[in-house]
Amino acid sequence: MKKDDSFLMSRGYLPVVALVVVCFVMVGLFTTENSELWLDGTQQSGLNSETTVVEEDKTSAPLPETTMTIEEKEAAEGILDPYEPVAEPEPSPLEALPVIEPQDEKPDDEALEVSLFSKKLLAPAEGEWVREFGFGFDETYGDYRFHNGRDMQLALGDMVYACENGTVIQAEENAEWGGIVALEGKNMTIYYYGVVPSSVAVGDEIAAGELLGTVAAPFAKELAQGSHLHLVIIKNGEPQDPAEFFEK
Questions:
Q1: Cα separation of 217 and 225, whole Å?
Q2: Which of 21, 44, 177, 234 supports an S-S bond with 193, CB 3.0-4.6 Å?
């Protein structure tokens, strides 16, 4: 019996013992490898932590201050020095176009008419105005009627001169008026009644101040007033007050 037990011991338990030994060896190797891996992971984690701290320290650390002059700061911010000359900008194509000076406007007809209307005329003779333009008492007819001109008291044979430049459109002796000379100007026609034409004739160009004729004898139309000049100014087909055209 003891011999068999020894045999079993030597034969049966040997593989088991070998298996157990192998298991222990493998467990030891596994444990050693995991320990090394754990140590490597711990060390690597520690290094990463230190790197993160260092990076955080680098991020949070304030930047070193740099010393800049006022001119450098202004240049960096784009501020111009008011005392520094600035180049004149190039003219735009529109600014480079030539400037057209306005031409003098031609006066309209109305303005020209007013200007000519207000022009003062030369006195036709040296005498006194005795009867004005408008409604009044007529000594010849003995009633009130419209007087279409202005009368200047003169003597028979006194000289009468042109008040304005014009063209002679009528020059004749007349029974009712003694004589008539008419000059057509640029903006008016002037009739000189009671004037006997001298050397003027229809179509003649007469200058202001030129002799037209002499005072006629008293005529029928205004007989009660004696020898005188009856001056009529027609403008735009209507008689005008001659007093408006002479110096006061």
A1: 11
A2: 177
Longest distance between any two alpha carbons in the chain, whole Å: 206
Q: Backbone phi, then psi, for 136, in 5-degree steps?
A: -175, 180
Residue 16 tokens read as: 């088991």
Cβ(176)–Cβ(219) below 8 Å:
yes
How does pLDDT run across 46-66, given as a tens digit for each residue? 445 444 444 544 455 555 555
Cα distances (angstroms) measured from residue 133 to each of 72, 138, 141, 225: 90, 12, 17, 15
Phi-psi region of 51 (alpha: psi -120 to 50; beta: other; left: phi over 0): alpha
Contact 171, 197 (CB under 8 A): yes
* 148-198 pLDDT per residue, tens: 999 999 999 999 999 999 999 999 999 899 999 999 998 899 999 999 999
Question: What token pair was written down for 225?
Answer: 């007033």
Give the global pTM: 0.54
- Tens of pLDDT, residue by residue over 231-244, are 999 999 999 999 99
End-to-end CA distance of the chain: 183
| Burial degree of 1 (CB within 10 A; 0-12, 13-18, 19+) | exposed
